[in-house]
Amino acid sequence: MRSLIKVPRLSTLPAWFGVLVLEILLLVYMVITQPVFFSSSNISNIVRSSAIPIILGIGMTFTILTAGIDLSVGSVLAFTGILLSGLITHMPRVTAVLLTIVITTIVVGGINGILIGKLGLNSFVITLGTLGIFRGIAYLVTNGTTQSMDTGKLINTLGDGNVGPVPGPFLVVLVVAGVSIWALKSTYFGRDVYAVGGNEFAARLAGIFTSRVKMTVYFISALLAALAGIMQVGRLQSAAPTAGAGIELAVVAGVLLGGTRLSGGVGSITGTVIGLLFLQTVQNSLTIQGVSSYWQQVVTGVLLGAAVLFERFRVQYSGRRKSREENNVTKE
Amino acid sequence: MTSRVSMVGITKHFDAVKALQGASLELHAGEIHTLAGENGSGKSTLLKILAGVIRPDDGTIAIDGSKITFSKVRDAISHGVSMVSQELSLVPHLSIAENVFLGHKQSRGRLGIDWRDTEKRAVEVLERLNLDVNPKDEVSSLPQHEQQLVEIARAMAADSKVLLLDEPTSSLAPNEVSALFKVVRQLRDEGVAIVMISHRMSEMLDISDRFTVLRDSKFIDTSTREGVTEDWLIERMVLNKPKRGVRATQSNEKPELILEVKGMTDRAGAFQNISFNLYKGEIVGLAGLAGAGRTELVEAIVGLHPRESGDVVVAGQIVAHSTRATMNAGVVLVPDDRRQKSTIHDMSIRDNLLLSIHGRPQKQRSKKAEEKIVSDWVSKFKIKMSHPDAPISSLSGGNQQKVVIARCLETKPKVLILDEATRGIDLGAKAEIYQILRELAAEGLAILCVSSELSEIFEISDRVLVMHAGDLTADLDRSSIEESDVVSAATGARK
User: Fold this and answer.
1) CB-count exposure of residue A56 (10 Å: 0-12, 13-18, 19+)
2) Which residue of B has its CA nearest to A325?
3) Is residue B246 situated within a structural domain?
4) Do B85 and B44 belong to one domain?
5) Which residues of chain A have a CB within 8 Å of the CB of B73?
6) pLDDT digit string (tens) for B45-64?
7) Are A53 and A247 in contact (CB under 8 A)?
8) Same domain, B409 and B279
9) Are residues A199 and B92, on separate chains, in Cβ contact within 8 Å?
10) ipTM surpassing 0.90, yes or no?
11) pLDDT single digits (tens) B376-419
12) Where exactly are the structural domains of chain A?
C-alpha cells in the first residue's frame, strides 16, 4: 500500500542534506542568541575565510572521488605564495600570477599525477611526500621568513576585496564550483571520475583510460591549490612558508562531512561546499560565543564521527528496507 | 546457416597450468550455444579469450570469415563481441542509464552530456529487454537479476552481434531465470549469436540450440539439440571413472556424533536451511559447483560468515557464532584461498604455524617449546623448507598447505574442515595430503572436505554431501553411489 503524501525517503536524499539542516539550525540559533553574528561584517568574514578551504576542497573532491587523496594541498598553497613573491618583482602582476599557477600546476600535478595515475602508486604515500617536499622548499627559499609584498588590486580582489558589493573570494568560489559541478555532471571526463572511483575494473572494461583520469584529478587539485595560494596572498598581503599548515586535514574533514566517500565513486561538489561552509560557521560561532579555539578542534572531530555514523545507519536502513522489499516481491 | 565466430586450435597456459589445449568453438548467427564442461575444463577461459580479456597463446579467431586478433577489450567490443561476466561489472552508484552507456557512449549535446537523450535511449534499450525501470535510479538499487539485464543492455547498446554469458543464472531464482531466458531467446530471434555457460542441466537442455562440450581443457564434442540428452552430456563432461581410494574398512561400532549443523541459513542468501551430522573418524566430501554456497557454509560454521539462523552443536554443546568460540570447541577450517585467507606471506613459516596458539599460557610458549612444535610438524608432514625462519611464501603451494593444516591441528581439534584443500597443488603433494587426511581420520578426527574435483571427492570420502544453489541436495554413502549421481545432484538435474 502506498501512502498518499509522498515523503522523500531518507535513502534518496543527498548525503549532504543532514549537514545542510544542521547548518540552518546553527544559523537560526546564532541569530537568536548572538545578534552580532548576523552583522554584515561577520557574514562577510565567514564567506571570506571559507573561500580558501572550499577551493582546496573542490580539488580534494576530485581526487577522493577516484578513491585517492591529495594531502599536499596545504604545502602547495604556501609554495605558491612564495613563488609568487619571487616572480612578482620581475614582471607585471598578471603575468606573475598566471606564471605561478602554470608552474605550480605542472610541477606538482606532474609529480603527483604521474606517480599516482600512471604508475599506480599509493596516493596517500605520494602526496604525504610532496606535502613535505613543497613545505620544505618554501622554508628553504625564505629561510623561514614571511615575504610581504605589494599585491596590487587584482590579487587583493581575488583573496579579499570586493567587486561592487560582492566579496571577490565569493565570486572565485562561485566560478570554480560552477565549472566543477558542470564538469562532473556533463563531461565524459567527469563521469569517468565517478566510474573509476566506483568500480575501476568495470571502467576499464568499458574502455575508459583509467590511468589518464586518475592523473588528471591531481593536476586539477594542484591547479586549485595554486589558486588558493594566490588568494591567501591577496588576503594577507604577504606570503609565509607556514601558510596553510595542517589545512589539508580540515579540508578532507569538510569533504567527508559533505557526503563524499573516502572509498571513491560517491560525492558531490555541492556537498563539499556545504560541508566546509558548515565547519567554518561552527568555528565562527564558537569564537563569537567566546569558546576556546581548542574546543573547535574537538567539535570538528565529533562532527566528523557523527557524520560517518549517520551515513552508516542510513546505508543500513536503506539496505534493510531494500531486502525487505525484495522478499515481499519474491513472496508475491 | 552462416558461421559468425570460429575459434580454432585455441591454446592457453597460465604458468605451468594448461587452461586450454587446442580448443575450438563454432558459433552461428541466431543461435543459443551452450558451452558445457566441469569446473576447470576451460569454458570461462575460452569465453574470456573471445571477449578480449585474455590473449591466447595460440590459435585463430575468425569473425564473419575474417581472421582477427584482440589485444584489448575495446577491440572485441568494436567487433561486436560483448561479455556479461560472472561478477557484475557495473559501477554501483551511477545511474542505470549511465551504466548502459558507460565508456563515452552517452549522448552529447551542446553543453556536454545530454542526460535527457541518454536516458531516453537507455529506456529504448531497456524496453527491448522488457525491463521497466527508471533510468535515473542508481543501478545498485536494482535486484541482482535486473542488474544483470542492465549489463546485457550495455551489450545491446554497443550493437553486439555476439553475446557471451558466463553463468548468467548462477545467482538467479527460477522465475528470474525464465525472465532472463525470454530475453535471451528474443535476442536470438533478432539474429544475435549467444554463448552461454551454465551448470544447471535442465536449463541447458531447455534453452540451447547447440552444445559444445569441453573436458580437461580440450574440445570433446559438439552437437545440435537433437539427440542431446542429460546422459549424453554427462558422459562427455565427466572424466574417465575415477579410481576409488583404498580405505581401511570401518569397524562396526556405532560411530560417535561430533558435529551437528542444524537448520543453518546465512544472511547473504548463499545457502538456506542446511542440516547435517559429522561422526568421529569419518571423511565427508562436500561436492557441488562453484557458487553452490559451500564456502559460505563452512565459513559460517566456523563463525566467519554471518548467519541468519541455525546452530552449530559440538559434542552436545551449542557453539557461539565466533571464530574463537568455534576453535575452542574444536572445529577448525583450512580456507580455500591460501593467499587471501590462510597464510600471512611475509611472515616466517614458524610464525605462520604458531598463529593459532597465541592464547596459550606463557609457560608453554618458551622458545624451546615452540621450536619443538615446529620441528615435530615439519618432520611429521615432511614439509620441505630451508629454515623455519624463511617466509612462508618461499614454500611450494603443497608445503604451504601442510603448514596451514599443522596450524589447525595444533589447536587439538575434533573436527577439521578443509575447503578446496588441494587447489593449485601438484599431484605428488596432493597424494601426501590425502594420506595425511586418512591418517588423521584413523586417529579419530572428523573431517569435512569441500572439493570441486569429483575425483578428489571419490578418492577420500566415506560419505558425500552435495550442494546445489544453496540447498543440500544429497547425502550419499560412498559405497553405493555412482559419479553421475553426484553430478546430477550438483547440477540440480534430478531431485
Assistant:
1) buried
2) B143
3) no
4) yes
5) 204-205, 207
6) 899 899 888 889 999 999 98
7) yes
8) yes
9) yes
10) no
11) 999 999 888 888 888 888 888 888 999 999 999 999 999 999 99
12) 11-258+267-311
CATH 2.40.30 fits A11-258+267-311, yes or no: no
Q: Do B141 and A322 touch (CB under 8 A)?
A: yes
**Is B249 within the bounds of a domain?**
no
Q: Length of chain B, please?
A: 495
Does the residue B251 lie in any domain?
no
Contacts of A191 in chain B (CB under 8 A): 94, 98, 106, 113
Of A186, A204, A329, nearest to B113 by CB-CB distance is A186
> Is B266 found in the same domain as B222?
no
Q: Are A86 and A300 within 8 A, CB to CB?
A: no
Q: Give residue B9's domain range.
A: 3-237
| CATH code, domain carrying B403 | 3.40.50.300
The reply to whether B326 and B451 lie within a common domain is yes
Contact B112 A186 (CB under 8 A): yes
| Inter-chain residue contact A182 with B112, CB threshold 8 Å | yes
pLDDT in tens, A253-293: 999 999 999 999 999 999 999 999 999 999 899 988 888 87
Whether A15 has its CB under 8 Å from any CB of chain B: the answer is no
Axis-axis angle for helices A293-331, A269-288 (nearest 10): 140
Name the H helices within B213-313: 230-237, 294-301
Tell me how close the Cα of B158 comes to any Cα of chain A, in angstroms. 10
Instruction: Residue B103: list chain A partners with CB under 8 A.
Output: 203, 206-208
Instruction: Report how many domains make up chain B.
Output: 2
Residue B253: what pLDDT? 62
Instruction: Flag whether residue B93 sits within 8 Å of chain A, measured between CB atoms.
Output: yes
